[in-house]
Amino acid sequence: MRNVNLNSPTPHERGVFSYIIDNYHMNRSPILFLLLIGNLFFFPFLVRAQELHKDLQGVWRAKVIEITAQKETIIPGTDTVAMIQTIQAEIIDGGSNGKIITVENDYLSLQEGDFFFVNYLITIQGDEIYTVADADRRSSLLFFVALFIGVILFFGGKQGARSLLALLGSFFVISYLLIPTLLQGYSPVLTSSLFAVGILFIAIFFTHGWNRVSVVAFLGTSCAMLITTILAFIAVKTSSLSGFGSDESVFLNMNTGGKLDFSGLLLGGIIIGVLGVLDDIAITQAAVVSELFHANKNLSKKEVYQKALRIGREHVGALVNTLALAYTGASLPLLLLFQGSSAEISYIINGEIFSTEIIRTIVGSIGLVLAVPITTFLAVHMLKDHPQQHHGHTHNHS
Questions:
Q1: What does the alpha-carbon distance between residue 69 and residue 66 come to, in Å, rounded to a whole number?
Q2: pLDDT in tens, 188-220
Q3: Which residues does residue 347 pair with via DSSP β-bridges, in sequence order?
Q4: Half-sphere exposure in the Cβ direction for 276 (13 Å, CA)
Q5: What is the DSSP letter of 132?
């Protein structure tokens, strides 16, 4: 809850708002979302025309000096309890560095000594207004990033260092190449597929070295990704998924003037999202085949294929469960929200926001399953009678 207006809405506002919000939660329609935004912002200006447009001047960091007042209140029209704080704070950066301000906070609970960000606004009449924007979490984020790097380097050694470099390379491709290209309006499916190959190349060869096992894993992952892309395209089209299953898509559509293909962006997201687990399964199968050939040179290709396939089935079972639980965990608040809905479960699942996650999970899982036989087949034909390479550079999965 942010910047709650404690003035009770008129009956007309309450009726329109209730109708739109109820239907929006059921349908997740972009049109209803726009009506919701209009009801939140347009009607209050009609009823309370004296309120002035606020112009954001900047977002600055501040420190809580004292909580001068604190009380609980009920949000009008609901049974939800909100905590309202009156805070005395010092701005510690920006154009008003050192200035002591008083700000009302209805967004998050703050304590003395906490750091947070404030929005600095100036009205048309020149009045200065400060509002709480968000907590300052950067120190916590830096700590856990450092902890992550330390754990990877401690247990992974040089292999871990290479994996971190590959991760940075992947982030670079996504942040500075993929995203700007998508924002320019290029085909999301084609763009995501091409950059996905580049990300795969970085992830596999930077981490596991340039060797035949890595080549097998790269080819196996690429084949599985191609099949996954085709299945995702068919699933999105036949399911009539628009790509507007989240509020972020609606806002992005507004900011870009409707020039992006959101159905294509949904496909691109599925392609990028499944890369990590495909890489996992492919490099494992290639390394397993190499180990089997090295352990018993008398084994035939068929025998190695069958043995490696049995190991792959166990790995796939764990990864499919991991994939499903990861998507479920990310959507947990939404699941709780719809649990109290009076609508039938079949209707809720039919909604785009749920259908998207179901398609994402199913298509990704199919890609995982197919990656096992494809990579294993390539490995038994490319690694037979090939000298074994140092597996500290090729295999870091159990």
A1: 9
A2: 989 999 999 999 999 899 888 888 999 999 999
A3: none
A4: 13
A5: E
Q: Using CB atoms within 10 A of its CB, is residue 196 exposed (0-12), middle (13-18) or buried (19+)?
A: buried
- Give the phi and the psi of residue 105 in degrees, each rounded to 5: -120, 115
Residue-wise pLDDT for 280-311, tens only, equals 889 999 999 999 988 888 888 899 999 999 99
- Residues whose CB falls within 8 Å of the CB of residue 230, separated by 6 or more in sequence, listed in order: none
pTM of the model: 0.70
282 and 214 in contact (C-beta within 8 Å)? no
Q: Report the distance separating Cα 264 and Cα 318, nearest Å.
A: 29
Nearest alpha-carbon partner for 108 in 201, 194, 32, 1: 1
pLDDT of 355 higher than 60: yes
Full strand arrangement of the beta sheet holding 115-123? 100-105, 81-91, 54-74, 115-123, 128-135
User: Residue type at 362?
Assistant: I
Tokens at 389, concatenated: 């390479």
Rounded Cα distance, 341 and 348, in Å: 9
Looking at residue 354, its pLDDT comes to 83
Q: Which CATH code fits 139-393?
A: 1.20.1640
Domain ranges of the chain: 11-47, 54-136, 139-393
35 vs 21: CA distance, rounded Å: 9
Amino acid present at 84: I
Q: With beta carbons less than 8 A apart as the criterion, state whether 363 and 232 touch.
A: yes
Q: Would you state the structure tokens that stand for residue 220, as one six-digit string?
A: 């196996």
Residue 115's pLDDT is: 93
Record the tokens describing residue 180, joined without a space. 């700007």
Cα 47 to Cα 15, 16, 259, 306: the distances in Å are 15, 14, 34, 73
Provide φ and ψ at 131, rounded to 5°: -130, 150
Rg (CA), the chain: 27
Q: How confident is the model at residue 388 (pLDDT cuts 50, 70, 90)?
A: low
Single-letter amino acid code for the residue at 363? V
The SS3 assignment for 54 reads strand
pLDDT at res. 155:
92
Q: 54-136 — its CATH code?
A: 2.40.50
